[in-house]
């Protein structure tokens, strides 16, 4: 089992708390219910990586998810690379992208602005 936490607030793996934009994870402290022995590994994923993956999932896979799901998929991809092609990796899409419409829209507009300007 692999835990995923924001790279900017990696308290589970001994880092300092900090600000991040991966909603629903990374409270900035180790929650009382956390059991270190349950996780075989802890993956740190940055807000930028999580958001980029969430946008990629929407564009390429038709999966409209939030940043925590983007983080989960980044971590799952890393684990898949480590374990190789015969491994089966499972992750959970624990949120939707509905509350991120404004944020995602701004990110898409910003990313596509140079493309639109060249036409």
Description:
A two-stranded parallel ribbon has the order 1-2. The chain has 119 residues and is mostly helical. The model is unreliable at 115-119 (pLDDT under 50). It has one domain (2-117): 3-Layer(aba) Sandwich (Rossmann fold). It contains three helices and two strands, in the order ββααα. Helix content is 41%, strand content 8%.
Beta content: 5-15%
Looking across the biggest beta sheet, what order are the strands in?
1-2
How would you describe the shape?
Answer: globular
The ordered string of helix (H) and strand (E) elements is EEHHH
Question: Helix segment count?
Answer: 3
- Helix fraction, binned, reads 40-55%
Indicate the CATH architecture: 3-Layer(aba) Sandwich
Q: Output the CATH topology.
A: Rossmann fold
Counted beta strands:
2
User: What's the overall average pLDDT, rounded?
Assistant: 87
**Low-confidence blocks of residues:** 115-119
The overall number of domains is 1
Structure class: mainly alpha
**Compute the gyration radius: what is it?**
16 Å
Biggest sheet character: 2 strands, parallel
Amino- and carboxy-terminal Cα gap: 48 Å
Q: Would you state the CATH class?
A: Alpha Beta
Label this structure with key terms:
single chain; 119 residues; mainly alpha; Rossmann fold; two-stranded parallel sheet; 3 helices; 2 strands; 8% strand; disordered C terminus
Protein topology:
Blueprint: E1 2-6, E2 41-45, H1 47-61, H2 67-83, H3 101-117
Parallel strand pairs: 1-2
Helix pairs in contact: 1-2
């Amino acid at each position: 089992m692999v835990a995923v936490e924001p790279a900017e607030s990696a308290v589970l793996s001994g880092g300092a708390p900090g600000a991040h934009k991966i909603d629903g994870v990374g409270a900035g402290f180790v929650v009382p219910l956390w059991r270190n022995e349950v996780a075989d590994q802890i993956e740190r994923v940055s807000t930028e990586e999580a958001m980029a993956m969430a946008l990629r999932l929407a564009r390429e896979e038709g999966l409209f998810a939030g940043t925590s799901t983007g983080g989960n998929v980044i971590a799952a991809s890393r684990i898949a690379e480590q374990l190789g092609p015969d491994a089966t990796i499972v992750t959970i899409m624990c949120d939707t992208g509905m509350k991120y419409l404004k944020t995602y829209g701004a990110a898409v507009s910003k990313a596509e602005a140079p493309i639109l300007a060249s036409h």
